[in-house]
């Protein structure tokens, strides 16, 4: 079969740069845990961006958020499903937001990964409310920003305790 299908999404969508990005460089086509795969795909971006100043880092993440609203909306329309599991650009942006002002270290990257996945799946208040009430590309992106805020706060607290207990 010349058509490769994973996660019930036609892999030919990756030929379109907009879908390629919204599908997390193809990671969203993972047949298992596409959100986790999308978050993993963000780790190399974090590694590249970690040396940047906080202002530039946040500027890039903010731009990725704005672009993500559009990307996710376009792919949502194409797939005919609100927040299809293959759309993982929101996970990429959420992970990068989680890692704001965190110097690159594999231990930090892994801890941030697990914290972001925890809060993204758990969706504590008001993240769950945002997920249910805000639609479209903006809603897809917004709930992951909420999860990232919780993750970033937890990560910063853990790193602070880690540094001060050593």
Topology diagram in text:
Layout: E1 5-6, E2 9-10, H1 17-22, H2 34-49, H3 54-79, H4 89-98, H5 106-122, H6 127-133, H7 136-165
Antiparallel strand pairs: 1-2
Helix pairs in contact: 2-4, 2-5, 3-4, 3-7, 4-5, 4-7, 5-7, 6-7
Structure commentary:
- This protein starts with a strand and ends with a helix.
- It is mostly helical.
- The chain is globular.
- The longest helix is centred in the C-terminal third of the chain and has 30 residues, at about 135-165.
- The relative contact order is 0.14.
- The chain has helices spanning about 15-20, 35-50, 55-80, 90-100, 105-120, 125-135, 135-165; strands at about 5, 10.
- A hairpin with a 2-residue loop joins β1 (about 5) and β2.
- Strands 1-2 form a two-stranded antiparallel ribbon.
- The model is unreliable at about 1-5 (pLDDT under 50).
- It contains seven helices and two strands.
- The protein has one domain (about 5-165).
Quick structural gist:
The protein has 166 residues and is mainly α. The chain is built from seven helices and two strands; from the N terminus they run E-E-H-H-H-H-H-H-H.
């Amino acid at each position: 079969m010349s058509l490769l299908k994973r996660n019930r999404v036609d892999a030919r969508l990756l030929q379109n740069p907009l879908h390629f990005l919204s599908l997390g460089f193809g990671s969203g086509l993972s047949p298992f845990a596409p959100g986790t795969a999308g978050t993993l795909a963000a780790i190399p971006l974090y590694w590249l961006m970690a040396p940047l100043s906080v202002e530039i880092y946040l500027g890039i993440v903010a731009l990725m958020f704005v672009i993500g609203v559009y990307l996710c909306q376009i792919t949502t329309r194409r797939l005919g499903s609100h927040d299809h599991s293959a759309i993982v650009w929101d996970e990429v942006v959420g992970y990068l937001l989680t890692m704001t002002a965190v110097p690159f270290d594999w231990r930090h990257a892994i801890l941030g990964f697990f914290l972001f996945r925890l809060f993204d799946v758990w969706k504590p208040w008001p993240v769950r409310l945002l997920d249910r009430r805000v639609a479209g590309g903006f809603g897809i992106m917004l709930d992951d920003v909420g999860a990232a805020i919780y993750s970033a706060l937890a990560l910063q607290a853990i790193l602070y305790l880690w540094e001060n207990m050593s």
